[in-house]
Design a protein that fits this description.
about 20% strand, about 350 residues, alpha+beta, elongated, two-stranded antiparallel ribbon
Amino acid sequence: MYIILAILIFGLLILVHEFGHFIAAKLLGVQVNEFALCMGPALWQHTWGETKYSLRLIPIGGYCAMEGEDEESANPRAFTSKPVWVRAVILVAGVFMNFLTGLLILAILLSTSAGFYSPVITDFADGCPYEGEDALQVGDEILSVDGERVYIYSDLSLLWERNSSGVYDMVVRRNGEKVKLDDFRFVKVEYEDEGETVLRYGLNFGNIIPKTFRNVLNMAWRNALDFIRLTRMGLMDLISGLVSINEMSGPVGIVSVISETGRQSESTRIAISNITYLAAFLAVDLAFMNLLPIPALDGGRLFLLLVTALIEKITRKKINPKYEGYIHAAGMVVLLGFMAFITFKDILKLFGR
């Protein structure tokens, strides 16, 4: 059941993304030749008006094929016949729809909470060495750690754990003013807890933000920004070599994670809630990844659109869109090859190899 639910989530996110392109193109007068969910051979297709709608075999991706998107066209309603701002809006519409979907899911989930923890220090453990005039104080709201903003309470443990040196640059809000704590030595120390020795920082956070309509929307926005940062950090860790490419997952791996999340949850209700939270993360993650300036992705198309527009403005000569099409086609081949590699690796993981 959870595997089916995971596949449906992927399909829905792809549908929402492509619908963003589709509705923007329709509203801005661009002819849409085909609106497809998934890739490969068509399983079903039907033409309404000027647009062919299809469901294809391979459950990865989808597309909104517009007239003149990657080739010359004399049609006044072709994509390339429209002003740059129109084309830019159409390109970012899919990203916008995915981000909006993630935001709405988060708002719905957070609306069921009684309140939200905030990164405001309400107390210190007995003997905590980090309380003082030149250190932390009760009422301090931790705003950033090592230059990374604290969006939500759980960011604190994430940002503290990422720095293995134990020395941080923190910014707190104290009595309405920002206070910098540079080169602040901050490591876990031993405390007695019910007869056991535990390691902790010794800070207590008991301040609760009440649930109001405004606070729900604000926390949804902060969670979405936090998702983007997590993805950015993951990419930077991959580029820097802190994590291996073997730790990456494609659609198969993500479906497996969603399924495992559902199975390990205490009840069906909790499972649905956890999976829905993952769906929100995937929606925001898909929006962010699609904005990267990589050929074949929306960000790559937007980047080349702006570069082409600048060159045409300087040279006063129109560039044949087929050349941009070649770049995106090459990017798509590389992207599909990479996806195939990740998918094959995920399948091997499923069989324990």
